[in-house]
Amino acid sequence: MKISKLLMRLGVVVIFVALAASAGAAVLYPVVVNGRWGYANKAGEIVTNPQFDRAGSFSEGLADVRIGRWGYVDVSGKVVISPQFDKAAAFSDGLAAVRLGSGGPTPFNPFGVGGGGRYGYINSEGKYVVNPQFDDAGTFAGGLAAVKLGGHWGFIDKTGKMVINPQFDDAGAFSEGLAAVKMAGKFGYTDTSGKTVINPQFEKAQPFSEGLAGIRSGGHWGFVDKTGKITINAQFEDVGSFVNGLAPARLNKRWGYVDKAGKFVINAQFNEATAFAENLAAVRSAKQWGFIDKTGKSVINPQFDEVKPFSQGLAQVTVGGRIGYIDPAGKFVWKTSK
Fold first, then answer.
1. Full DSSP string of 12-35
2. pTM to 2 decimals?
3. Pick from 63, 147, 225, 323: CA 20 to 30 A from residue 88's CA?
């Protein structure tokens, strides 16, 4: 899905670490040791032995892992949903989108019609709540999920009922009560009843955050409010989402941060920039990434090849192909050995 899988710089922060469902449960981080994936705690101590081909982040107490195929483990490292899926997403609103089949016959698609497998949704027990039947599927947000059927996108509720008929060329997840949708080559926004709130008129559209959404018109980016009113004129080459009153924006091939009046409060000076998360934002100068605070001050010097936003007090970084985690001071609490 083009909209729902926006780059992290667009403000849809990639949550690579999440608290387990129970209160006070430990925060766990996926780590790699000798090519195998496991989980470490915030102190960098291994709590789940590296044994997986791949490991995702915890969400609602479960994490997707691959052992040949995809399944799920709990925070103790126990496989609670056996590996059986060709693709598996994180849990959201109690359900996870999974794909069964990659082109061949499946129990729900015995003739392999469509050639690309089918998506459905499972609960935390691994039971199908919505049988595999969709060409593509997004995550649930606000009780609804975007699904693709017959070449068009619509929205289902958590019982699998189609509450907004497939009619869109593309559709993103709901955010602050609205979802970006594409019709006849233009993007607008619909509410949860399927009513068009902002008519399709934009070349591209991002999710709402803090009451504003980035839109592209005439080749430039600006922002609209929930009534569709332009609050910041389309003038930027690219933008991200607002977090704590600031949004990344690119002008003259450099990224900075603007306030809700559209004024740069951190000058456009970076090669790349992401939305703020936990009061820090990842920025790239030349070829390396570092982190700044809301005043624009460099807090962690550029030194990383890749980064993810801070979440639960740590950020995942990559140096020389090795994955690690740093704290807000830039100190490594975990670094994959060679």
1. -------B-SSTTPPB-EEEEETT
2. 0.87
3. 323
Please give the Cα distance from 173 to 178 (Å, whole number).
8
3-state secondary structure 197-249: EEEEEECEEEEEECCEEEEEECCEEEEECCCCCEEEEEEECEECCCECCEEEE
In this structure, what DSSP letter does residue 300 have?
E
Per-residue pLDDT of the chain (338 residues; tens, 9 = 90+): 443 333 333 344 333 333 333 334 568 999 999 999 999 999 999 999 999 999 999 999 999 999 999 999 999 999 999 999 999 999 999 999 999 986 544 443 433 434 469 999 999 999 999 999 999 999 999 999 999 999 999 999 999 999 999 999 999 999 999 999 999 999 999 999 999 999 999 999 999 999 999 999 999 999 999 999 999 999 999 999 999 999 999 999 999 999 999 999 999 999 999 999 999 999 999 999 999 999 999 999 999 999 999 999 999 999 999 999 999 999 999 988 65
Residue with tokens 């807090």: 299
